[in-house]
């Protein structure tokens, strides 16, 4: 089984006097998000997408809202646990895509910073994280922030094999270039590169 997808959704109501944190990024805004934890709607959706991708339950099964330990908790803790579940299952993140739905604040001006923050927390490149935003037009939900997240995972074993196959391709390509330059057959083993053995049985 090489690839897995996951989807997560969350919503929190805006509340005055609470700091606003979305995607681990503190944002200047008169209201924050109410919740048992810090209310980071985006990290909660990504956490659920990761857990769902490896069939490991959901955020509430690990961190029940009835447990006082998670009162005011930093949502990065939830995300870290989900990342551990992904690693234990033998997968790594290919990319993550998200949609935030809220009337305010405007997300696009801070989407670059948010993308970098989320990528850092996930241990991936900013180019592997999508942050998009919509207003809840016609939904009568101006006091609410909603987040949707999808993740794609690949098996670490398969990733290693792909890397090894690429290495084989590299050696062959170099061999062709060298042949073109010096003419005739050329033994790439003389270049000190070991040709990795690829066993298709490893792909099961
Ligand atoms: N909180 C938001 C909501 C929207 N945007 C940007 O505005 C565009 C138009 O949104 P509509 O929901 O009116 O279609 C949207 O595509 C985003 O670029 C935003 O930055 N922050
Ligand atoms: C994160 C938890 C932690 O108690 O509480 P909330 O901050 O209320 O967030 P929610 O998205 O409703 O998920 C439930 C809980 O697991």
Task: Write up what this structure looks like.
It is built from 5 helices and 7 strands, in the order ββββαααβαββα. By secondary structure, it is of the alpha+beta class. The protein is globular and about 45 Å long. The model is unreliable at 177-204 (pLDDT under 50). Bound molecules: the ligand Nc1ccn([C@@H]2O[C@H](COP(=O)(O)O)[C@@H](O)[C@H]2O)c(=O)n1 and 2C-methyl-D-erythritol 2,4-cyclodiphosphate (CDI). Pathway: Isoprenoid biosynthesis; isopentenyl diphosphate biosynthesis via DXP pathway; isopentenyl diphosphate from 1-deoxy-D-xylulose 5-phosphate: step 4/6.
Indicate the mean pLDDT: 84
Could you name the CATH class of the largest domain?
A: Alpha Beta
- What is the string of helix and strand elements? EEEEHHHEHEEH
List the uncertain runs. 177-204
Instruction: Identify the quaternary structure here.
Output: single chain
| Beta fraction | 25-35%
End-to-end CA span: 7 Å
Main beta-sheet annotation: 5 strands, mixed
Derived from helix and strand composition plus strand pairing, the structural class reads alpha+beta
Query: How many distinct beta strands?
Result: 7
CATH evolutionary superfamily of the largest domain: 2-C-methyl-D-erythritol 2,4-cyclodiphosphate synthase
- Please tell me the total number of domains: 2
What is the CATH architecture annotation of the largest domain?
2-Layer Sandwich
Helix content: 25-40%
Shape: globular
The CATH topology of the largest domain corresponds to: 60s Ribosomal Protein L30, Chain: A
Ligand catalogue:
the ligand Nc1ccn([C@@H]2O[C@H](COP(=O)(O)O)[C@@H](O)[C@H]2O)c(=O)n1, 2C-methyl-D-erythritol 2,4-cyclodiphosphate
The largest beta-sheet arranges its strands as 4-1-7-5-6
Tally of helical segments: 5
Rg calc: 22 Å
């Amino acid at each position: 089984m090489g690839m897995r997808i996951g989807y997560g959704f969350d919503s929190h109501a805006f509340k005055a006097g609470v700091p606003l944190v979305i995607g681990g990024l503190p944002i200047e805004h008169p209201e924050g998000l109410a919740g048992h934890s810090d209310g980071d709607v985006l990290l909660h959706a990504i956490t659920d997408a990761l857990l769902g991708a490896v069939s490991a339950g959901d955020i509430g099964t690990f961190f029940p809202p009835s447990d006082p330990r998670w009162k005011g908790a930093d949502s990065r803790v939830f995300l870290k646990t989900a990342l551990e579940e992904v690693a234990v299952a033998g997968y790594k993140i290919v990319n993550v895509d998200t949609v935030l739905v809220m009337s305010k604040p405007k997300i696009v001006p801070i989407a670059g910073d948010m993308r970098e923050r989320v990528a850092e927390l996930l241990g991936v490149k900013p180019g592997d994280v999508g942050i998009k935003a919509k207003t809840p037009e016609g939904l009568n939900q101006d006091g609410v922030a909603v987040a949707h997240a999808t993740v794609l995972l690949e098996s670490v074993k398969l990733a290693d094999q792909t890397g090894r196959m690429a290495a084989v391709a590299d050696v062959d390509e170099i061999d062709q270039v060298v042949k073109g330059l010096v003419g005739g057959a050329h033994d790439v083993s003389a270049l000190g590169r070991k040709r990795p053995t690829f066993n298709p049985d490893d792909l099961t």
